[in-house]
Amino acid sequence: MKKILIVDDEKSFLLSLKDGLKKHSGRFQVFSAENGRQAVEILRSMSIDLLVTDLKMPEMNGFELLAWTSRHQPQLPVIVMSLLVRLKSKLVWIKWIRFSFLKNRLISTCWKRAFLTV
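Given the sequence above, the corresponding structure tokens read:
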């Protein structure tokens, strides 16, 4: 069974997303973490097939988690979800996606496509 890790510091959003995905429990298992550090612990302890992460989180943010993932598990598909609204952050993120995609071809930008391939 495929495993998805969802990382977000908003507990209510995390729980609602996990609840919404329960109907697919026969296709994959959903694991969750509230920050990047917890996510890294999970990624080190088990094989994950898809990482879904927020960017703005305490302790270890999504950018740091993405950097760790690209160094240690470059084959892992990643979906980023965020409500960041500052233009500067968006520009940095767009540049990172373009670089990572061209370098590793690991960024997935579409939920539907990701769920079809997981």
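Confidence is low (pLDDT under 50) at residues 94-118. Try to locate this feature in the token string yourself.
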